[in-house]
Amino acid sequence: MIREGGTVPSIVAEAHRLVGAAQAALAGEPRPRALLADCARRLDQPLRVALAGSIKAGKSTLLNSLVGQDIAPTDATECTRVVTWYRYGSTPSVTAYAADGARAHVVVRRGSGTHGLTFDLDRLNWNAPMPREVDHLEVEWPAAALAHTTIIDTPGTSSLSREVSRRTARLLTPGEDDERAERGIAIPGADAVVYLLRRLDAADVSFLERVGAGTAAANGGPGSAGPLGIVGVVSRADEIGAGRIDALHSAREVAARFAGELERTGLCQAVIPVAGLLAFAAATLRQQEFAAFETLASLPVDELSAALLSADRFARADVPLPVPPELRAQLAERFGLFGIRMAVTLIRLGVRDSATLAAELTSRSGVDELRSVLDVQFGQRADQLKAHSALTALASVLTAYPGTPADRVLPRVRTLLADVHGFAELRLLGRLRTDELALPADDLAELHRLIGGAGIAPHLRLGLPIDAAPAVQRAHAVAAVRKWRARARHPLADQFTVTACLTAARSAEGALSLLPE
């Protein structure tokens, strides 16, 4: 899902140094020593991305579509009510963990037909004297998408069970309403968040505000940082248009509305519409399904349209269609009405093989766009996001255990959280909207590009082709530094515009520093 590259190793090295200094100073304190050891480990581990959202927002389905394999149960069983970590492993395995660290192997069952995996939590053999309550699950799977990214699937934030909702809150808003929080220590469990929305209601906004407020508080105050890594997804986007062929167009309009609210306030860096069900079905398209779509495409338009009035009608045995009812039910469950209509339309327009159809459906599902955004916002900044999580946790531990030699580390930690330019770029990307900056559209586009909105490689920041000569790139970078520093000095510029212009200038200086003489 996310690749590493183009990151800034120096910030991770500095975070390691500070964590090491704190460990040495607090060597006699078992609890902070354990917390700091976890800080050090996570700096060397893959980026942690949490999938969050309300009940039935489609988190598990989106996870399967991003990974391209059926590894997350999507049925409403007990396993969807606990936090589940998906990591890379050479062989598939699922392990249940209790709060005290006890663990048990989980049996994985694959359902018949279109039903995917189920994790059997009813009969667990704990490596402890007595049964335990499951705290979280850890899944190891040989999926390439997990090599550089650990994905955390969370329970719905609006569950009727308060305890189920609190499991997600403990991960993303640590220290808030958490009976297990000690001495006010807030350890962020994820480095970045993909938040799924079906509608934008007060509960969604409130939860995102709490995530952002927790980050700001850990950084030393409400003005020092917003959420550094949150991308919104209008999930199950095909359902917004009731499964019509133009459903994703309707979903894009909804996403634009949501983006206007969430990006403007800094709660999300982007909002993307995605039909997760279609994306996963396309990634696992079977030849039998392609043949069924070809058969359906040969029918008169009116006849097929009448059969597609509802999923139940489409699968009924008394509806005369040249595809068996069982296969029709499978198509409806895996692709939805939107996916069926889209597949048939593409075949009528000339698609002649299953590979091409799978690629076209994937493109239209929105998942490719989401992957691109996740790569730019998260993957290319993985080191920065991991360092931010570690430094935030370090600041929390040091604040909770004052009066030791580790106190001298805290000012440097807070300085890094406030001043590291990569963090400033991420905050600005979260707030950058055309109605907030009094700049022409072309300048806004350039500013967005300079601060890494299209990627963090120098040529991408400067809007140049990858093979542009170093001298040309240097000239563009120097011109950008001069331009944006001049814009920041404009006498009528408000404080936010000044800050944005100075951030762009520093980004151009950073690009210049990476270019050969």
- The radius of gyration over CA amounts to 25 Å
Low-confidence stretches: 3-9, 216-227
Based on DSSP secondary structure assignment, what is the total number of beta strands?
Answer: 11
- Shape descriptor reads globular
Outline the biggest β-sheet: 9 strands, mixed
The number of helical segments is 20
By secondary-structure content and strand pairing, the structural class works out as: alpha/beta
Percent helix range: 40-55%
State the end-to-end distance.
35 Å
What is the residue-mean pLDDT, rounded to a whole number? 84
Tell me the fraction of residues in β-strands, as a range.
5-15%
Structure description:
The structure is a single chain. With 517 residues, the protein is α/β, with parallel strands linked by helices. It is 49% helix and 10% strand. It has 20 helices and eleven strands. The chain has a nine-stranded mixed β-sheet. It has a two-stranded antiparallel sheet with strand order 5-6. Strand 9, helix 5 and strand 10 form a beta-alpha-beta unit. The radius of gyration is 25 Å and the shape is globular. The N terminus is likely disordered.
Structure at a glance:
The protein has 517 residues and is α/β, with parallel strands linked by helices.
Index terms:
nine-stranded mixed beta sheet, two-stranded antiparallel ribbon, disordered N terminus, 517 residues, alpha/beta
Ordered list of secondary-structure elements with their pairings:
Elements: H1 9-25, H2 30-44, E1 47-53, H3 59-67, E2 83-88, E3 93-97, E4 103-105, E5 107-110, E6 117-120, E7 136-141, E8 149-153, H4 162-172, E9 192-197, H5 202-218, E10 230-234, H6 247-262, E11 271-273, H7 276-283, H8 287-297, H9 301-307, H10 311-315, H11 325-348, H12 354-365, H13 367-377, H14 382-400, H15 410-419, H16 421-431, H17 441-450, H18 458-461, H19 470-488, H20 495-513
Parallel strand pairs: 1-8, 1-9, 2-7, 9-10, 10-11
Antiparallel strand pairs: 2-8, 3-4, 3-7, 5-6
Helix pairs in contact: 1-2, 1-14, 2-14, 3-7, 7-11, 7-12, 8-11, 14-15, 16-20, 19-20
